[in-house]
Amino acid sequence: MNEITASGGVLFVRGVHGRQLKRRYGEHAHDPHSLALQYCLERVNFYAESEGIRNIQIVADKVSDPAAHEGMLKRYKLLGSTEGYVGSDLAHIDFPFRWEDSRKYFGLQAIDTALFILNRAVRLNRDDMSSKGDREVLKTAQILLPHLHRSSGISYLQNRKSYYLMPELYPGYQK
């Protein structure tokens, strides 16, 4: 996690709960991975626009059908906006993506680990931190927090709750 933060990058984390997505939208539900990718790219695009960054090259973990994921996003770009309430033209996102095998690409392995840690940290019971493992998860998550973009979060659509990965959620967080 120290290597990730030393890179100077900004982390964007977006996710959806697949079962709740399917329960809410049934056969009309989008693929959870595609939807989380869309949400993340929307935020990256807004960030690029606000920072005056013209083009962002995406390196993503290989998926079974990269053309389907990219095709959906290219369609949004051509239509001028993504679906949903936070639409984006994705004007600052370069296509095609670089699809890499995370088993062979150290940067993607590191991001996978960061996502695992953050996902676990946000779900910990803050009232019972007696487990050394839980405390270590929080300690590791704190390394990432200064580099986590404020729009990061994991949404649970069915119960209308969003768990945002903000510093105030972590006991003992040092600014």
Question: How are the strands ordered across the major sheet?
Answer: 1-4-5
Q: What is the terminal-to-terminal distance?
A: 17 Å
Coarse shape = globular
Number of strands: 5
Give the uncertain stretches in residue-range form: 155-167, 169-175
Helix content, binned percent: 40-55%
How many helical stretches?
6
Please summarize the sheet with the most strands: 3 strands, mixed
Label the structural class: mainly alpha
SSE string, helix = H, strand = E?
HEHHEHEHHEE
Strand portion: 5-15%
Write down the overall mean pLDDT: 81
Radius of gyration: 17 Å
Describe the structure.
By secondary structure, the protein is mainly α. The chain contains six helices and five strands, in the order αβααβαβααββ. The strands form two sheets. It has a three-stranded mixed sheet with strand order 1-4-5. A two-stranded parallel sheet has the order 2-3. The longest helix is centred in the first third of the chain and has 20 residues, at 32-51. It is globular.
Short description:
The protein has 175 residues and is mostly helical. The strands form 2 sheets. Strands 1-4-5 form a 3-stranded mixed sheet. The chain has a two-stranded parallel ribbon with strand order 2-3.
Explain the layout of strands and helices.
Blueprint: H1 2-6, E1 14-16, H2 18-25, H3 32-51, E2 59-61, H4 66-79, E3 98-100, H5 106-122, H6 132-144, E4 153-156, E5 161-164
Parallel strand pairs: 1-4, 2-3
Antiparallel strand pairs: 4-5
Helix pairs in contact: 5-6
